[in-house]
Amino acid sequence: MALIELRDVAKTYPPRRRGGDPVRAVDGVTLDVNEGEILGVVGYSGAGKSTLARLINALEPVTRGTVTVAGQELTRMSEGELQKVRRGIGMIFQQFNLFHSRTVWGNIAYPLKVAGVPTSQHQARISELLHFVGLADKAHSYPEQLSGGQKQRVGIARALAASPKILLADEATSALDPETTQDVVDLLRRVNRELGVTIVVITHEMEVVKNLAHRVVVMENGTVVESGSTFDVFADPSHQVTQRFVRTVVDDVPSQAVVEELRRRHPGRLVTVAFREGSVSQTEVFGELISRGVGFQLVYGGIEEVQGRTFGNLTIELTGDRVDEAVRALSELVAVREVS
Ligand SMILES: Nc1ncnc2c1ncn2[C@@H]1O[C@H](COP(=O)(O)OP(=O)(O)OP(=O)(O)O)[C@@H](O)[C@H]1O
Question: Can you give the residue ranges of the ABC transporter domain (predicted)?
């Protein structure tokens, strides 16, 4: 059984205007989050990602369907039981949501108090958390004295204070620069690997998903339009929304404007060849060309690495007498697209 299970979950809000239509923020989502995994939830603004997070951590009731966390179905729980579930789920946010009038120490102590951890145990726990997030020297600083990345580290320490099994990260890196984002991504990976915390990462940043998530779901208009392993989603995005997201970080297929430029400079036959680690190697593909005396030149594309496996699209200009025969042979081995 998955740690989090959503079955046909819907959340509808009342119309924004009198006489308007109800807002279907989440509209029939079924998904599992397995224990120990990092799931990326991707979608444009308004797709329903934050609403989904609020349904998972029981901040709001569903309109339809069921949410089950660690075997317990939320709709069947009393408010007291729901509070316990919420305590087992840490949250971090884009704007960090720290208490500005409290020190770093005070911010991390807060959830310990709420969880009823005796004050005598605070010192050891807070010190352990500060070391884990690399802020041992900032215990007595106030949030305004910290950088964005440091604030998010405090947010992570605070979210982990009561030892949750699940961490929900809602656009947690969206306010950070790329380098700081990578530091926070590295820290979240340690949270997952070293502490065994299951993480749901809600984001529109594909670089974060690529570097962090094991699996991805893509949302549009409250529904899941695509899901799969991070490798498969990046290597072979099928839905148009997914393709647009993936293109923000993987730009290995030439756009129409680039094709026109390539055509001007390369009179030979242009084809795009898709490579996937674990299937046919580049040596085999280029071997087919060489054995037929076909000239080739790489004119566009690149090879990416996701989850330790490589994939990519290479656009090649082919020249020589036996090009047609070579393209037929290549098509037996890999996906080949004509560039026109
Ligand atoms: N409390 C609410 N009352 C009414 N409508 C809401 C409420 N919360 C969200 N919505 C609407 O539900 C839809 C989904 O919103 P949601 O915030 O879940 O999307 P999102 O993918 O997280 O987008 P963003 O990244 O912009 O927050 C939007 O149309 C939003 O206006």
Answer: 4-246
